[in-house]
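Technical note accompanying the year-one report. For the benefit of new consortium partners, we illustrate the data format agreed upon in the data management plan: each record pairs a sequence with a structure-token string. No post-processing was applied to the example shown here.
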Amino acid sequence: MARATADSVEHVRQLALAAEASARIGVELADMVHFGLDQSWLTTEARVTLDRKVAILNANPTVRLQLAGATDERGSDLYNMALGHRRADAVRQYLIGKGIAVLRLQKISTGESSPIDAASTEAAWTQNRRVEFTIVSGDRPLATN
């Protein structure tokens, strides 16, 4: 009986550790990449972030992501929607180049319509120039890479 209880406790502990690891991986998969003013090319920092995502996606082959390109408030609505698409496409093309299947990556643009920070300051604009990642489907819990 004591052995069964110990096994049960260990099983619950293992489940808790797996859930915690899955949550950490989900946070890393959601980590945004940011862009400079009027830019859609990937910085070295963005590439490092994306390379971590590639490892996670390779370990979780059923996960599909939405890539949402966003801009700051400067520029026309039409220009900002196009820039958001270019940013999402830069991320998408990088991931495809690293072997992630195109069907796993949905690209959209939110333009300036979804600011992280609505202030009209350089700090706010810097946060708003980004691509966000959302898991749209795939197995859970997420596997470690």
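Partners are asked to follow this layout when depositing records. The chain has one domain: 2-137.
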